[in-house]
Amino acid sequence: MAVSYLEKKPPATLQTLAQGFSKANTELRFLRRECIKKKLFLLFALTPLLIQVCFGAAIEDSLFNDKSPTVKNLYIDYINEGLKMLEAKEYSQAEMSFWRALNLLPDVPDAYINLAIVNIQRENLPEARQFLLEAENFTPRGYSKQPLLFYNLGYCLYLEKNYSKSADYYIKALDADPTMARAMYGLGLSYKKLGNADKAAFILLKAKNIFERTGDLVFLNKTNQALSGMEGEKISIPENPREKRIESTLDFFDTYTAANPLSKSEQFLTEGSRAYKNKKITEAMNLMKKSILLNPNNPQAYYRLGVVYASQQNFLESAECFREAVELDPKFVNAYINLGSSYGKLNKYSQALATLKKAIRFDKKNPKIYYNIGMIYASRGKHHAAKKYFNKAKKLCLKNNDSVLLEKINSFYTK
Description:
Layout: H1 15-19, E1 32-33, E2 43-45, E3 53-54, H2 69-87, H3 91-104, H4 110-121, H5 125-137, H6 146-159, H7 163-176, H8 181-193, H9 197-214, H10 217-227, H11 241-258, H12 261-277, H13 281-294, H14 299-311, H15 315-328, H16 333-345, H17 349-362, H18 367-379, H19 383-400, H20 403-413
Antiparallel strand pairs: 1-2, 2-3
Helix pairs in contact: 2-3, 2-4, 3-4, 4-5, 5-6, 6-7, 6-8, 7-8, 8-9, 9-10, 9-11, 12-13, 13-14, 14-15, 15-16, 16-17, 16-18, 17-18, 18-19, 19-20
């Protein structure tokens, strides 16, 4: 049986943090997502600050291997509810939902990460950092949110003026996700604050190169500002072994774009799809992001990355990927179907219906479209409309011998 929020207190290591929550009600400028727009990934903007905070940790199945389906689903519900409140600037309600998730499964890191983000929004940086450190303790090997976790730790430490530690965590973020150009930017700023102007210039120039390629104009301007006055600096390559890994990561972009970027992009996409098939989620995400960085005009790359996010219940990000896919290919039917499904999971029913009905224009004989429309209507209690679309889907399934989808439709009728 699931433990309720009122029955269980926060873990002892975090009780001191809980005492201050009732006092923290000041709403600050909310981070508006720029995911994938202009080829960005998973980032929200906090305009008054030098660096951005990564936002919105969703849940992956590997964290629930020894958990019952009931507990798993309740945890996911709490996290998704909290993310919706966070997006709506309802920080206190978001915080309560994330605490409920944490109380239910205190050894799963996602609730800690999202509680940290709430506190970053409130500028409670020590508390945010403590939550992120707790999350790090519970992070399993291969956890797909490691880049987000390490980036946010670097972000907090930078704002607390602990530049040496912030550099360490930005390096960790880049180890986990070599495509995270904004971690390069943060690392460059950290080196600059530490007085390592040559290293800072080396990192920032690499970041600038990536921002130019990906169209991230906001951070391109920030990087140009950071480089201002450094024109005369001697650009040195980092020397110690750990920083050499960063050099190798940054040179990835120069090496592969100088060769055959489109061919290399396809290779990364194929390797990413293979990794996903083998349930190597983090590896799949990183490879697909590399593919997009080398060829940002391939709708298939966004689509496949969206499928990976959706498989991890991360519907905010999957929707952004599928939206980018249909913008690049306005007749991409499967992308419309998955975009509509992601909207439905986010309770954005009007957008879900509009998207799915648009898909019908391009493929009137696809039973999945009618089935998904029926599910949207059913979730809203409009059973007459749902039945109409289920019947259409059923006829097409019988015609196409789609036994799997037909079984889903029949199971709905027997509920």
